[in-house]
Amino acid sequence: MYSTVIITGASSGFGKGFAERLAPHCRRMILIARRESVLQEMATAIHTQHGTTVDVWPCDLADSQARAALLTKLCTVTDKSILLINNAGLGDYGEFCTAEQERNRALIEVNMTAPVELTRTMLPAMLQADKAGIINIASLAADLAIPDFAMYAASKAFVASFSEALRIELNKTNIHVTAVCPGPVHTGFGDVARRTGKSKKEVPFRKWFYSTVPCVVNTALKAVEKNKPRCYPSLKIRIAGLFVRCAPLWLLRLIMSTRPRKATPIT
Ligand SMILES: NC(=O)c1ccc[n+]([C@@H]2O[C@H](COP(=O)([O-])OP(=O)(O)OC[C@H]3O[C@@H](n4cnc5c(N)ncnc54)[C@H](OP(=O)(O)O)[C@@H]3O)[C@@H](O)[C@H]2O)c1
To answer: What domains lie within the chain, and their CATH numbers?
Structure first.
């Protein structure tokens, strides 16, 4: 589908799913995340199985200096078709007033600053390419302010809004931009988002609502191919997304303020 594919957050969950799904179809793959040994293992497996050239570019996307070094390397990437998947992200379950400042900062850098900087860096090469795509992994949370998940939901609203505007700016070019809005999926995400000392029961979703990594990956790839502005992987998430986007704000506020919360309300 694309000759060069760049994936952030490639060491786990959706990112790993994208890498495995796209490996047989691309010439070169650039894998980005912090866990270098995991990425190296993936690179070896992908190269052995499919002959794809895999570059492992480990980077802590929350670190501005490490990001700057990564952007310098990305500036050298050119090809006839390029797909950038801005996937790396983290959450923080719990009330905002006890959130750690350092974690808030990391969330902002990884969820918002990194996709913006990577996109801006890759755009010149993408404009020169015959075909290019940008997949920005947002969330169903992009359309909803979520108490006890305030920073995360706000960061995903940013990703979705950024994608929509960028897409319009680029609509006369060969670059497709798609924001992907998954609902809950079992990946490493829940464990990372859970604060130290909090039990697994804190995760505020029901089992039936979950979808799967292949569903998210396949829906996202089809959507970017068809140049869809957004996609909501799985029927139940599409329905939930439609409800959230059509419901008046007062109703969403009522639902979010009356839904059961694990955190003790602040008095
Ligand atoms: N799972 C869900 O329910 C769900 C739902 C909607 C949207 N999403 C979004 O989907 C995306 C992927 O999440 P996932 O579910 O696949 O979770 P995951 O399994 O925890 O994967 C997150 C990825 O992001 C990378 N990452 C985290 N912090 C990083 C940092 N500072 N620097 C570089 N890479 C970093 C991780 O790699 P390292 O740890 O190796 O650095 C990992 O590869 C995220 O943007 C998330 O917000 C997830």
So the answer is: 4-258 (3.40.50.720)
